[in-house]
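Much of our argument rests on the idea that a fold can be written as discrete symbols. Part of our work consisted of pairing the sequence of a single chain with a tokenised description of its backbone. The amino acid sequence and the backbone structure tokens for this protein are reproduced below.
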Amino acid sequence: MTDRAIPEQYLDGYAQIMAEVSATGRRLTRDEIASRRALGEQAADAGFGLRTLISAHLAAARAAWPATPGAAHSALAAVQQVIDAFAEGYERAQRLAVRQGEAARREFIDDLLYGRSDLGRLAERAERFGLRLSHAHAVAVARGPMPYDEGDPVPRQVERSLIARFGDRSILLTTKDGRLLCIAPGHQDEVLIHFAKQAHAATDGGRVAIGRSQPGPGGVVQSYEEALNALELAERLDLEDPVLRSADLLVYPVLTRDRQAMADLVVHTLGPLTTARGGAQTLLDTLTAYFDSGCVAAEAARRLSLSVRALTYRLERIHKLTGADPADSAHRYMLQTAVIGARLLDWPAKAL
């Protein structure tokens, strides 16, 4: 829009101001400065470029330049005042537009991620931000050691990397509750993988979860919630992977779908460990390390900084208290499921 001819309305009264200033040597009045600011705001709202507007003012000043050499100083001072006031109004309008745009974007993101608003209207608003909600989308969520806002260096760094690599691919990068989010078309998995790598590095080793691709206007909400749940599971289970896929963690929601049944299994299977000296936590950690190491005693002992003999003693103690042998394949599944349930339900720290 910067190449369009500048309408005369944005130069209204300028020639008269120049003529009076050249004749009298006076400075601009308060009302004249206010009128220049107002014209600057109007020009910004109309979408004209500031460089083109200033060029038009300079051309008009040249046309109205006084013939008397002594008036040149006053004329130049007037041009400075006019352009300064005009640019101030222009910048004020731009700042307001930016704030309004940011507010509209934040409102849209909140509605999108919370599933609020009419879906048809939401889909219309989404096109303004490059999303076609009739298609499938997936969401990646990154959590770092501190909360982030959109204007912070970390989100800007990740966004620059995404744009440099993929350009405009209907990608929306934003923040929500201090986390970084990337919303991308469901078939562009490479975008989310790149986001995960960049976010992990930019957040000094933060963790990233990727939700499954979900169709339709409500698909973004589903994928977002899956990614959040994956982050929560990773924290509860102390998973080490920096990048998690919700599709790889589907077994855990299944296990906890019937919370009471899982609580009963934990109490029935692992409850006797609470009678051990020092409580159940040490023996529970032993089982966790044993199962995480593929039931290899030497590896589990290394993870726990124990000798293999000490680890074996603990496993025998667990067998004696619970009646279930961790080394026995017939008992192993029940014990391992109960251990997972204990971690998900934060037992024994929380009573079941």
The mean pLDDT is 87. Residues 14 and 320 are 96 Å apart (CA to CA). The radius of gyration is 33 Å.
